[in-house]
Amino acid sequence: MQKLIIAGTVGKDAVLRRTQAGEPVLGFSLAVDNGKDKDGKDRPATWFDCNVWGKRGEGLAKHITKGSRLTLSGRPTARAHEEKAYLGINVDDVTFQGGGSGERQQSRQDDDGDSYGNQPADFGDDVPFMMEWR
Q1: What is the CA radius of gyration of the chain?
Q2: For the domain that residue 50 is a member of, what is the CATH number?
Q3: What is d(CA 88, CA 131) in angstroms, rounded to the nearest whole number?
Q4: Averaged pLDDT for residues 1-26
């Protein structure tokens, strides 16, 4: 089993779509900072195509906006198009990072039962609440 954990900034507001079968999927891009090189110059960010499936995607649609800082975990994906490689993640867990007023946070438990963020929860496919983060 592969699990990818990334932290970064949302590039533009998330878009909720539906598959031909009617299943909701929330899509957005996340830029992951790669720090500086040995000369102190910024390295280019790595971009990931992110998908949150089902009711969780529907519940998060209005909360994932351009500039949101998130930590995601899920299954890594990759695809090639016109000789370019695109990295992605099918998101299982989302944590909104604090920092400004109006930021919100949601968390889940990992396989060991440890909680991340301020509120432990095991949501299944539902997002039953959003908690104000300060």
Answers
A1: 15
A2: 2.40.50.140
A3: 27
A4: 95
**How does pLDDT run across 47-89, given as a tens digit for each residue?**
999 999 999 999 999 999 999 999 999 999 998 989 888 999 9
Domain that holds residue 16: 4-132
Distance, CA of 86 to CA of 48 (rounded, Å): 7
Question: 0.90 cut: is pTM over it?
Answer: no
Secondary structure of 65-134 as H, E, C letters: CCCCEEEEEEEEEEEEECCEEEEEEEEEEEEECCCCCCCEECCCECCCCCECCCCCCCCCCCCCCCEECC
Q: How many domains does the chain have?
A: 1
4 contacts 76 by C-beta, under 8 angstroms: yes
